[in-house]
UniProtKB/TrEMBL annotation:
Similarity comment: family membership: Belongs to the UPF0162 family.
InterPro entries: SirB1_N, TPR-like_helical_dom_sf
Name the UniProt record assigns to this protein: Protein SirB1 N-terminal domain-containing protein
A Pfam family recorded for this sequence: TPR_9
Length: 269
């Protein structure tokens, strides 16, 4: 399996790192086609914006091109489907989630010279636009609309509770490895929900290349192995989690699971 380290992602555009991640999870990912499509869209954008002189108007024109003419949009009907996390599929269907849509828009915008960066806000991925000498503005990549700090504060309260307050740390530019780590977690959750356990296992194995001893990833890997009928490996992973996190509420449940699985194995053998 391809091993991906932080320095790889830092050297790439976010969408390129996401494609590398997608390929590591699913070898059928159409990386070459996606690269060609990104290049084609960039050329089309360059031609569409060639007569725009004012930089801010050029950016507004890019948003119109991306969301209205090209038809990229948030997938409201199947938000949690794994296809929304695979860049080639998003380029094909023009539907995605904030991080996948944002990564594609970010790639084109940066290639065109716009001062756009990614932000992993607690509720979702955002894009931050910073014109020289002006206050930063924030874009929801799900629909291309600008979002006020007041609205972001309301999102935060909805996510963390009534005492949550918007702070500057919530709006800092995020490095690619952090975004890719969240992207990997989203894909794993989606694949588990779809019971695509072989691909979900690849997600867990990749995550463990970054944090080899993470008990929560190992617990999840145990669950996947259990679904794949690899019960002894699942038992080992569950026991590791129980040993490392004895006070976690899940540990007590897993103890019962381990006991049941162990007695089943004894009966079978």
């Amino acid at each position: 399996m391809l091993e991906l380290f932080d320095e790889d992602f830092d050297a790439m555009e976010l969408v390129e790192g996401a494609l590398a991640l997608n390929k590591a999870i699913n070898p059928q990912t159409q990386v070459q086609w996606a690269d060609a499509e990104l290049s084609r869209l960039l050329q089309e954008a360059e031609l569409a914006l060639v007569h725009e002189v004012n930089e801010q108007q050029r950016f507004e024109a890019l948003l119109r091109l991306f969301y209205h003419q090209w038809g990229f949009q948030g997938d409201r009907e199947s938000y949690f489907h794994s296809e929304n996390g695979f860049v080639d599929k998003v380029l094909e269907t023009r539907k995605g989630i904030p991080v996948s849509l944002g990564a594609i828009l970010l790639y084109i915008a940066r290639k065109l010279g716009f001062p756009l960066v990614g932000v992993t806000f607690p509720t979702q991925f955002l894009l931050k636009l910073e014109w020289y000498g002006e206050k930063a503005r924030y874009i929801n990549p799900f629909n291309g609309e600008f979002v006020s700090e007041h609205t972001l504060g309301a999102w935060l309260i909805g996510h963390k509770g009534p005492l949550a307050k918007l702070e500057s740390k919530h709006l800092l530019e995020t490095d690619n490895p952090t975004v890719i780590g969240r992207w990997l977690a989203l894909l794993k959750s989606a694949l588990l929900r779809e019971e695509r356990y072989t691909l979900a296992l690849k997600c867990t194995d990749l995550a463990l290349t970054f944090v080899p001893d993470d008990p929560y990833e190992i617990r999840d890997r145990g669950f996947i192995y259990q679904q794949l009928d690899c019960h002894q490996i699942a038992l080992n992973d569950y026991q590791y989690f129980i040993d490392q996190c004895p006070d976690d509420p899940a540990a007590e449940l897993l103890k019962n699971q381990v006991t049941a699985m162990s007695s089943t194995q004894v009966t079978l053998h």
